[in-house]
C-alpha cells in the first residue's frame, strides 16, 4: 500500500497478483457502490492535472502502456462471476470488457476529472455521445429539460427533434442570461436537467454559472454544462455545476485528428452510467478506443500552454480587428456584455477564450471574407470544429447551426453573416496578422467593413 500511495495512485487496495486472482474479504471493493476513482479539487486546473495519477509503462516507461484488449482474462473461474455481480471492479485491476472499462481509457478519465475538478469522469467516442448519454441517464420518458436557446446545432437538434420523438423528453429553450426566465421555466418535480454551454456556440455568450447553478439546485434539477469552448479558462464544476461535458475533439485534442468526448461529474452519476443493467454509457456503447485514449493522455499536459496562446492571439486579433471597424464579438473585449462576468469566473492567466466572431451581416460577405482569408493569404482554413493549431473559420448559420430554423437562429442571436473563428497559434502573431490585413485589403470595396 505504501508503494501505491507513493506513486499517487487513485485506486485503493492491493493490486491483483500475477498468478492467481488473490483478494481477501477485508479488501474487497464493492464495485456497485463506486466503480471509479475520486479526484481532489484544485483551484487551478493545471495544478490539479499535475497532481493526478501518472501511469507508468509496463517496463518502467515514463509513458503508460496501451491496453489494447477488447476482453480480459481471469485466473480463477469464480472471479468472473464476482466481477459480473459487481463485487470486483477496475479499482482492483479486475476488468471484463473494454466497452465496460479499459485501463487506458480510465487513465484519461482521471485526467479529465482532475482538469474539471470533479469526482469522476468517463471518456466516450464523441462529444455528442457524451451529451446524449448524460441526458438519457438523467431523464426518463416524460422528463423535461430547460436549455439555453443558443447551443451547438447538433445538441439543439437532439433536444428539439430526436428526444421528443424517440424518448418522450421535451425541452423548453430560454435566454440563459435571463435568470428569471430560467427560474420560471423549471417545473419542480418534472424538470430534470438545466443545460447550457459555458460559452455559447457560436455567439460566445457567457453563462452565469454560479447563479444558474444556484437556481437549478433550488429547483431540484441537475446542472449540466458543456465546456468545450473554454477548457482551462472556465471550471464549471468549481463554480457550482454538477456535470461538465466536453467534445475532446476540439481544444483538448488540439490536432483535429480524433473524435472523442467526456462526461465529468459525481462518481455516483458516472458509476450509474456504467451500470450493467441501467447504464446509458454501458448499454448504448459509445466506447473510446484505448489507442485514442493514450494519444489524448499525452496531449493534456500541454493543454494549458496551448490555451494561453490561443487566447492571447484571439485577444490581440479582436482588438486590432475592432480598430479596423469590423464588428467583433469576443468576451475579452470590454464592450462584450458578459466581459466582467467572465472576468469574475475565469481561471487566472488563461485569457478569455480562443474563439472570436466577426459579424459580416450577410452570408455573401461572410463567404467572401473567408474565401480571401483561405485562398489568397493562407490565414486559415474554411472548416468546422475548433481548437486546431491552424485558424478554422465557418459561417455558423449555414454550417454548425444549420439544424436551427430561421426563427431559432434569430432568437439565438446568430446573424446570417456571423463568421466564427477558432484562432490558431501556428506561425508568428505578426505574420498571421499581416495575412489577415492583406485579405481585407484585397476585398475592400466599401461593403466589407461594418461599423460597430
UniProtKB/TrEMBL annotation:
Example GO molecular function: carbon-sulfur lyase activity
Pfam families: Cys_Met_Meta_PP
Location of N6-(pyridoxal phosphate)lysine modifications: 250
InterPro entries: Cys/Met-Metab_PyrdxlP-dep_enz (IPR000277), PyrdxlP-dep_Trfase (IPR015424), PyrdxlP-dep_Trfase_major (IPR015421), PyrdxlP-dep_Trfase_small (IPR015422)
Keywords per UniProt: Pyridoxal phosphate
Family per similarity comment: Belongs to the trans-sulfuration enzymes family.
Domain of life: Eukaryota
Keyword Hydrolase attached: no
Protein name per Swiss-Prot or TrEMBL: Methionine gamma-lyase
GO biological process terms held by the UniProt record: methionine metabolic process; transsulfuration
GO cellular-component term (any): cytoplasm
Cofactors named for this entry: pyridoxal 5'-phosphate
Keyword Hydrolase appears in the UniProt entry: no
Amino acid at each position: 500500500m505504501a508503494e501505491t500511495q507513493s506513486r499517487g495512485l487513485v485506486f485503493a487496495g492491493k493490486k491483483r497478483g500475477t498468478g492467481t486472482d488473490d483478494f481477501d474479504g477485508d479488501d474487497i471493493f464493492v464495485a456497485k457502490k463506486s466503480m471509479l476513482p475520486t479526484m481532489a479539487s484544485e483551484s487551478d486546473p493545471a495544478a490539479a492535472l499535475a497532481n493526478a495519477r501518472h501511469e507508468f509503462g509496463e517496463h518502467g516507461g515514463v509513458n503508460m502502456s496501451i491496453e489494447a484488449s477488447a476482453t480480459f482474462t481471469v485466473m480463477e473461474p469464480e472471479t468472473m462471476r464476482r466481477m459480473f455481480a459487481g463485487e470486483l471492479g477496475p479499482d482492483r485491476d479486475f476488468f471484463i470488457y473494454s466497452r465496460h472499462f479499459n485501463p487506458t481509457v480510465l487513465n484519461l478519465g482521471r485526467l479529465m476529472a482532475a482538469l474539471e475538478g470533479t469526482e469522476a469522469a468517463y471518456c466516450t467516442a464523441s462529444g455528442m455521445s457524451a451529451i446524449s448519454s448524460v441526458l438519457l441517464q438523467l431523464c426518463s420518458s416524460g422528463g423535461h429539460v430547460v436549455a439555453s436557446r443558443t447551443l451547438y446545432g447538433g445538441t439543439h437538434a437532439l433536444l428539439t427533434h430526436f428526444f421528443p420523438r424517440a424518448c418522450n423528453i421535451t425541452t423548453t429553450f430560454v435566454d440563459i442570461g435571463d435568470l428569471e426566465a430560467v427560474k420560471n421555466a423549471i417545473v419542480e418535480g418534472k424538470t430534470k436537467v438545466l443545460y447550457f454551454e459555458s460559452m455559447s456556440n457560436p455567439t460566445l455568450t457567457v453563462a452565469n454559472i454560479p447563479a444558474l447553478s444556484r437556481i437549478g439546485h433550488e429547483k431540484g434539477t441537475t446542472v449540466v454544462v458543456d465546456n468545450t469552448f473554454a477548457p482551462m479558462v472556465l471550471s464549471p464544476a468549481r463554480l457550482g455545476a454538477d456535470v461538465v461535458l466536453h467534445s475532446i475533439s476540439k481544444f483538448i485534442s488540439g490536432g483535429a485528428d480524433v473524435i472523442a468526448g467526456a462526461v465529468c461529474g459525481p462518481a455516483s452519476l458516472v458509476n450509474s452510467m456504467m451500470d450493467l443493467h441501467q447504464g446509458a454509457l454501458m448499454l448504448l456503447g459509445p466506447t473510446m478506443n484505448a489507442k485514442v485514449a493514450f494519444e489524448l493522455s499525452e496531449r493534456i499536459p500541454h493543454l494549458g500552454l496551448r490555451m494561453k496562446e490561443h487566447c492571447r492571439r484571439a485577444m490581440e486579433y479582436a482588438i486590432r480587428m475592432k480598430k479596423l471597424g469590423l464588428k467583433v464579438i469576443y468576451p475579452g473585449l470590454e464592450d462584450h456584455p458578459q466581459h466582467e462576468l467572465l472576468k469574475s469566473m475565469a481561471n487566472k492567466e488563461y485569457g478569455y477564450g480562443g474563439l472570436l466572431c466577426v459579424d459580416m451581416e450577410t452570408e455573401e460577405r461572410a463567404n467572401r471574407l473567408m474565401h480571401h482569408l483561405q485562398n489568397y493569404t493562407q490565414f486559415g482554413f474554411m472548416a468546422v470544429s475548433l481548437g486546431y493549431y491552424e485558424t478554422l473559420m465557418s459561417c455558423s448559420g449555414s454550417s454548425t447551426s444549420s439544424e436551427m430554423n430561421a426563427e431559432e437562429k434569430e432568437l439565438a442571436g446568430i446573424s446570417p453573416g456571423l463568421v466564427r473563428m477558432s484562432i490558431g497559434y501556428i506561425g508568428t502573431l505578426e505574420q498571421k496578422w499581416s495575412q489577415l490585413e492583406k485579405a481585407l485589403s484585397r476585398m475592400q470595396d466599401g461593403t466589407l467593413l461594418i461599423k460597430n
